[in-house]
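User: I'm putting together a teaching handout on how multi-component assemblies are represented. Below are the sequence lines for each component of a complex, exactly as they appear in our records. Could you produce the 3D structure of the whole assembly as structure tokens, so the students can see both representations side by side? Please keep the chain order the same as the input.
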Amino acid sequence: MELYQGSLDVKEIFGRWLDEESSSNYGAYIPFVGTIRAEDGIEALSFDIYEPILQSWFDSWVGRAKSKGAKVKMAHAIGDVPIHTSSYISAVFSPKRRVALELIDEFVEDFKANAPIWKYDVIDGRRVYAEDRSTPMSGSGILGKKGDK
Amino acid sequence: MELYQGSLDVKEIFGRWLDEESSSNYGAYIPFVGTIRAEDGIEALSFDIYEPILQSWFDSWVGRAKSKGAKVKMAHAIGDVPIHTSSYISAVFSPKRRVALELIDEFVEDFKANAPIWKYDVIDGRRVYAEDRSTPMSGSGILGKKGDK
Amino acid sequence: MVKIEFLGPISQEPLKIEASSLEDVAKTLQDIEEISNWLDKCAVAVNDEMTNDLSTKLKDGDRVSILPPVCGG
Amino acid sequence: MVKIEFLGPISQEPLKIEASSLEDVAKTLQDIEEISNWLDKCAVAVNDEMTNDLSTKLKDGDRVSILPPVCGG
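Assistant: Of course. Below is the structure of the complete assembly, with chains in the same order as your input.
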């Protein structure tokens, strides 16, 4: 897992990951590259990350991939990422294509739902929490329940 | 669509495609990189391609992707591709991740089933048709039917 | 004492409170106006381990993190 | 005359035959030992257009391609 201040150097990361696994005998390599879209007048998106829990989340995916003979990698930006540059790359390596195609889908979707990362629109230099696009993590809400008071 | 004699220059192709779409405002870029695995003592795989029909197949996918606001790209090797080098890259660009994740899966699977490409194992310099791993294309068998003779 | 940390967009400095379980934490936080509205949609970690069990016991020095809705990528 | 081309691993030079439909092509090819075993698993294109209709009419100069099982990637 790799975290960077600001936009990712997508070509460097893609190429390095390719080289790292060049003799691992994987038949399929599927990266997912996430790029900031220009919309709603934003100049950038900005990200906060809570690294300890992101690391455990990622480690559990390393194990899950390994049990299928596959490998996952991930890089994410911290702080401001201007439009048309990239904030996120994840990738799956696998001997076989079906495992790789299914795993990249599950990995990216679980990332969106459960990786402890918070997104902000940057408009006129101000950070606004992207609440409408955010998802409560699994198990959310337990502290809000009125218990046996 | 790009066809190359021998192994693909994966980094060059990945980077060029990234640059080509750098201001297209796509949020997701998912390449699929296919690499030759060392197995069963092969030294390489080798490919024949029938380009006119591959081009029509690809063009129909360009249209299908466009109807979802997405774009597909593809590169494939012709002739011998040594183990641990790449024969195939396809990619989907899309504004949104769900479309991209579903499209790369469908595109790669349909490619395996219907792109007019023939694969051979190269063992001791000899080409052996990979018949057991090959799939009859859609509509196969019509000439084998005993008709109204 | 247990330390409560608020992550991401919740603009609240860490709190130190007396609590022997997450239930105690819930009661305390529900009474803080700036925080109570977040609770229905927040997840919880104790010492960086996610949990969805309100009966989780806490001991002196434990660290509770409050994680609001996420959106990586 | 219609030209029949065999693609990929079928080691057979192109044939020129008289045929007014794909049915005629089928009859002719079924009688050629080296080819008949391929036919059940081959797809067909006429002038580079895939077809699965055996009644497809052919005219002088048409080109029929025989496509054995594929495996790109």
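A couple of points students might notice: Helices of chain D lie at 22-30, 33-39. The beta strands of chain D are 2-6, 15-17, 43-46, 49-51, 63-67.
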